[in-house]
Amino acid sequence: MKYKNIRTGTIVEPSTDMTAQTFSLSKDWIAYEEKAKVKEKPISKMNKAELVAIATEQGIEIPEGATNAEIVKLIEGGEIDGNGD
Questions:
Q1: DSSP summary character for residue 17
Q2: pTM of the complete model
Q3: Do residues 29 and 4 make contact, with C-beta atoms less than 8 angstroms apart?
Q4: Domain extents for the chain?
Q5: Looking at residue 82, what is its pLDDT?
Q6: pLDDT in tens, 23-61
Q7: C-alpha 85: how far from its chain's center?
Q8: What are the strands of the beta sheet with 29-32, ordered from one edge?
Protein backbone atom coordinates (compact mmCIF):
# COMPACT_ATOMS: atom_id res chain seq x y z
CA MET A 1 0.00 0.00 0.00
CA LYS A 2 1.16 3.51 -0.73
CA TYR A 3 0.83 6.55 1.50
CA LYS A 4 0.51 10.24 0.62
CA ASN A 5 1.76 13.08 2.79
CA ILE A 6 -1.15 15.50 3.28
CA ARG A 7 1.17 18.51 3.53
CA THR A 8 3.64 17.91 0.70
CA GLY A 9 1.77 15.51 -1.57
CA THR A 10 4.72 13.11 -1.51
CA ILE A 11 3.74 9.52 -2.27
CA VAL A 12 5.76 6.65 -0.79
CA GLU A 13 5.53 2.88 -0.73
CA PRO A 14 6.92 1.46 2.51
CA SER A 15 9.31 -1.45 2.09
CA THR A 16 8.58 -3.07 5.46
CA ASP A 17 5.50 -3.76 7.55
CA MET A 18 6.93 -1.71 10.39
CA THR A 19 7.35 1.33 8.15
CA ALA A 20 3.83 0.85 6.78
CA GLN A 21 2.45 0.75 10.31
CA THR A 22 4.29 3.98 11.13
CA PHE A 23 2.71 5.72 8.13
CA SER A 24 -0.76 4.35 8.94
CA LEU A 25 -0.59 5.71 12.49
CA SER A 26 0.70 9.14 11.49
CA LYS A 27 -1.75 12.02 11.06
CA ASP A 28 0.43 13.44 8.28
CA TRP A 29 0.00 10.44 5.97
CA ILE A 30 -3.10 8.95 4.34
CA ALA A 31 -3.56 5.71 2.43
CA TYR A 32 -3.17 6.32 -1.28
CA GLU A 33 -4.47 4.28 -4.19
CA GLU A 34 -3.48 5.13 -7.71
CA LYS A 35 -6.37 5.36 -10.09
CA ALA A 36 -6.06 3.10 -13.06
CA LYS A 37 -5.29 5.01 -16.19
CA VAL A 38 -8.09 4.20 -18.56
CA LYS A 39 -7.47 5.12 -22.12
CA GLU A 40 -10.78 6.08 -23.64
CA LYS A 41 -11.48 4.42 -26.94
CA PRO A 42 -12.31 6.86 -29.76
CA ILE A 43 -15.93 6.62 -30.86
CA SER A 44 -14.78 5.95 -34.43
CA LYS A 45 -13.07 2.73 -33.24
CA MET A 46 -16.03 1.34 -31.27
CA ASN A 47 -18.00 -1.68 -32.38
CA LYS A 48 -21.77 -1.66 -32.82
CA ALA A 49 -22.51 -3.01 -29.33
CA GLU A 50 -20.41 -0.25 -27.72
CA LEU A 51 -22.07 2.43 -29.85
CA VAL A 52 -25.55 1.13 -29.04
CA ALA A 53 -24.68 1.13 -25.31
CA ILE A 54 -23.56 4.77 -25.45
CA ALA A 55 -26.62 5.80 -27.45
CA THR A 56 -28.93 3.98 -25.03
CA GLU A 57 -27.28 5.69 -22.03
CA GLN A 58 -27.93 9.04 -23.71
CA GLY A 59 -31.55 8.18 -24.49
CA ILE A 60 -30.98 8.11 -28.25
CA GLU A 61 -33.30 5.92 -30.27
CA ILE A 62 -31.47 3.86 -32.88
CA PRO A 63 -33.37 3.01 -36.06
CA GLU A 64 -33.41 -0.66 -37.02
CA GLY A 65 -30.58 -1.48 -39.41
CA ALA A 66 -28.56 1.66 -38.59
CA THR A 67 -24.89 1.42 -39.50
CA ASN A 68 -22.05 2.22 -37.12
CA ALA A 69 -21.45 5.50 -38.96
CA GLU A 70 -25.12 6.45 -38.57
CA ILE A 71 -25.06 5.63 -34.85
CA VAL A 72 -21.92 7.74 -34.41
CA LYS A 73 -23.67 10.61 -36.18
CA LEU A 74 -26.67 10.32 -33.85
CA ILE A 75 -24.44 10.25 -30.76
CA GLU A 76 -22.60 13.34 -31.96
CA GLY A 77 -25.90 15.18 -32.24
CA GLY A 78 -26.56 14.83 -35.93
CA GLU A 79 -29.41 13.31 -37.84
CA ILE A 80 -29.23 10.44 -40.28
CA ASP A 81 -30.54 10.69 -43.81
CA GLY A 82 -33.12 8.36 -45.28
CA ASN A 83 -36.31 6.87 -44.02
CA GLY A 84 -34.89 3.55 -42.80
CA ASP A 85 -36.10 1.47 -45.76
A1: H
A2: 0.49
A3: yes
A4: 2-32, 43-75
A5: 59
A6: 999 999 999 987 766 678 888 899 999 999 998 888 899
A7: 37
A8: 11-12, 2-5, 29-32
